[in-house]
Amino acid sequence: MNNKSSEQPETLNSPVMVQPSIYQGFVATVKRDSLIAVRHRGEMANPLMFFLMVITMVPLGISPEAAVLASLAPGMIWVVALLATLLSLDSLFRGDFEDGALEQLLVSPQPLYFQVLAKVLVHWLTTGLPLTLMAPVLGVMLSLPEAGYWPLMASLLLGTGCLSLVGSIGAALTVALRKGGLLLSLIIMPLYIPILIFGASAVSSAIDGFPIVGQLAMLGAFLASAVVLAPLAAAGALRISVNG
Amino acid sequence: MSQTAIAEPTPSAGDSPLLELRNLHCERDERLLFSGLNLQLYPGSIVQVEGPNGSGKTSLLRLMTTTSIDYHGEILWRGESLAQSRLDYLNHLLFVGHLPGIKKALSPRENLAWFSGLNSGHQRCSAEEALSEVGLYGFEDVPCHHLSAGQLRRVALARLFLTPAQVWVLDEPFTAIDKQGVANLERLMSEHAAGGGCVVLTTHQELAIPQVQKLNLMDFRERCADHELEAEDSLYE
Questions:
Q1: What is the per-residue pLDDT across A74-116, written as a single tens digit (0 to 9) for each?
Q2: Could you give the number of structural domains in chain B?
Q3: Domain range spanning residue A31?
Q4: How many angstroms separate the CA of residue B57 from the nearest CA in chain A?
Q5: Which residues of chain B are within 8 Å of residue A13 when distances are taken between CB atoms?
């Protein structure tokens, strides 16, 4: 530190404090979390590797026959995508909790709702979106029938968003616990079941030649209500976790 | 209640307190930390919270920063209860905790950019100026995991130069800071106070600031024990 007291701003409390903009706070957190995700690429690749490895082993473990695999493919891809998301959830708020950044978020003049939404958005961009993009490749490995590809991607696109949002509630509730991983799974699993049912059934219906508008509409409705409600719940849970 | 206004208001006559704690009572894990705590922070106040380890210094700061709400009593911001004026209060608050929230994967510049974004870019100087003020000139783009503990602390303290906030709440700001750094921080606090801000800090060091008011949390524990005894006595009378 160099001793230059001459150019200290004398106006400590003079600037009229404008209410901070929610948009700028949102963008700042998205930027920061994306940067961290890029710097920790290994962690980001973890759920994707899990997804890839499990799907690779299915033909080895069950049967390499195309007919058997094709009937398993929709459910298998969906279940593994769900588990891969679950695997990545524990770290959603943990880093921030451990280094005090979460406390800073609570003390910042920003609504916690949008800050949680920003963090979940980055989580989805680094897990849900890559999972969705990888799914067709894995579909080929499981000889998914041709009619299943677009429905698989569409249902995963909507569904992984729900998974990240709903999962943030569990992550927020368990962030203060030293070993919250198991509890997190127990809290979140039941909430994931409807998403899994509608997601997997969209793909298998499409393969059987039925319309899938109904399932996709349900997934869309889940996503819409999760965007509105899940960050609220997660924000409340974070306050409790930091308070206790 | 005889122990009103432990911290004598600084003679800035006519000012109303910025932040006022009234009859604060806090327990943690069924252990009493303090009771009957009154404190008024005026523009220009510097309050040093004292007490042995585990006496509730950090708990008090957590109450003052609204991250904890486990207390009885009142906290008023400019005469209004915090429940009503929370957002306005947070807008004027800077809190540097024991864990300062610095991301090790990011550079000091990127860390400060996040804090500045949360405040919508309201700051008194650029991040570069703030970092050179705390002696990190040339380290702006070095990832924080390459920095030493003291340098990490300085990144967090660079926010003091950036922030336009009026109320500073600092938990152990001098940890891992060298002598020259401590002197600079003390100067900065005095200047902040002179400019109409107020500072609450915990530290075990003696501060070289003349107008500092000390608040020893142990006083409030004994007193309340006396009160309980008195109450019991009066029951038997």
A1: 999 999 999 999 989 999 999 999 999 999 999 998 999 999 9
A2: 1
A3: 22-243
A4: 15
A5: 43, 164, 166, 195-197
Contact between chains at A243 and B105 (C-beta distance less than 8 A): no
Nearest 5°: the CA angle A68, A211, A145 is 25
Task: With beta carbons less than 8 A apart as the criterion, state whether B115 and A104 touch.
Answer: yes
For chain A, the domain total comes to 1
Q: Do A100 and B101 touch (CB under 8 A)?
A: yes
Q: Identify the CATH number of the domain in which residue B236 sits.
A: 3.40.50
Contact between chains at B105 and A101 (C-beta distance less than 8 A): no
CB-based contact, B91 to chain A, within 8 Å: yes
Residue A5: inside a domain, yes or no?
no
Question: B179 contacts in A (CB within 8 Å)?
Answer: none
Q: Which of A28, A102, A103 sits opposite B118 (nearest CB)?
A: A28
Q: What is the 3-state secondary structure (H, E, C) of chain A?
A: CCCCCCCCCCCCCCCCCCCCCHHHHHHHHHHHHHHHHHHCHHHHHHHHHHHHHHHHHHHHHCCCCHHHHHHHHHHHHHHHHHHHHHHHHCHHHHHHHHHCHHHHHHHCCCCHHHHHHHHHHHHHHHHHHHHHHHHHHHHHHCCCCHHHHHHHHHHHHHHHHHHHHHHHHHHHHHCCCCCCHHHHHHHHHHHHHHHHHHHHHHHHHHHCCCCCHHHHHHHHHHHHHHHHHHHHHHHHHHHHHHHC
**pLDDT digits 0-9 by tens, B188-212:** 999 999 988 999 999 888 888 888 8
Predicted local distance difference test score (pLDDT) of residue A18: 65
pLDDT digits (tens, 9 = 90+) for B129-173: 889 888 888 898 999 999 998 899 999 999 998 888 899 999 998
Cβ–Cβ below 8 Å for A1 and B98: no
Enclosing domain of residue B11: 1-92+205-237
Residue B3 has pLDDT above 80, yes or no: no
Distance CA A167, CA A229 (A): 12
* DSSP-derived 3-state class of residue B166: coil
| CB pair distance less than 8 Å for B101 and A2 | no
Instruction: Provide mean pLDDT across the span B48-59.
Output: 88
